[in-house]
Amino acid sequence: MSDNWLMFIPVDPRAQPAQAGADRAVELLKSFAPDAGDEVSATFSDKVEFRDCGSNWSGVECPQCGKDAEEWWADATDIAYKSEFEDLRVTTPCCGHSTTLNDLNYIWAAGFSRFVLEAKNPNIKQTTTEQDAALSEALGLDLKKIWRHI
User: Fold this and answer.
1) How does pLDDT run along the chain (150 residues), one tens digit per residue?
2) Nearest CA to 101 among 110, 89, 109?
3) What whole-number distance in Å separates Cα of residue 58 and Cα of residue 112?
4) Strand residues in the chain grouped as ranges (E)
5) In angstroms, rounded to a whole number, what is the distance separating the alpha carbons of residues 14 and 19?
6) Taking Cα atoms as reference points, which of 4, 9, 5 lies closest to residue 102?
């Protein structure tokens, strides 16, 4: 059997909400995805982690020129991992664009964070723009939405 996660991470990889905001966001996400039940959580981490989309992975592109970045992305991610993702800066070899691993164009959203709000097997197709805004407001952070399938 496979599982799906609906995850929300801050756009800023190092940002974390207040605990009260995380608690509000968990309750909101439970109301948006009632089938997830007790499988909704807010997790704080001391270190930045890569939040991937699992088997939804469809590649990664340069945000400047749109060229496929997979050829160099894995090596750049391995280098950043050695510093526990403290430094996500990269210069794309395709066009020399200065960016971060977090700001690359992941075909299925992915990113880096120290915080994640997630619902396992939410059994919904999508959240609305209004629901996403409510979660962002509860957390006091701009968010990126990631659908993970394993």
Assistant:
1) 789 999 999 999 999 999 999 999 999 999 999 999 789 999 999 999 999 999 999 999 999 999 999 999 999 999 999 999 999 999 999 999 999 999 999 999 999 999 999 999 999 999 999 999 999 999 999 999 999 999
2) 89
3) 17
4) 4-10, 40-51, 60-61, 89-91, 98-100, 105-106, 111-120, 143-149
5) 15
6) 9
- Rounded to whole angstroms, the Cα distance separating 26 from 62 reads 33
Kindly report the number of other CB atoms within 10 A of residue 14's CB atom: 14
* pTM of structure: 0.94
Find, among 104, 77, 74, 106, the residue nearest to 92 by Cα. Answer: 104
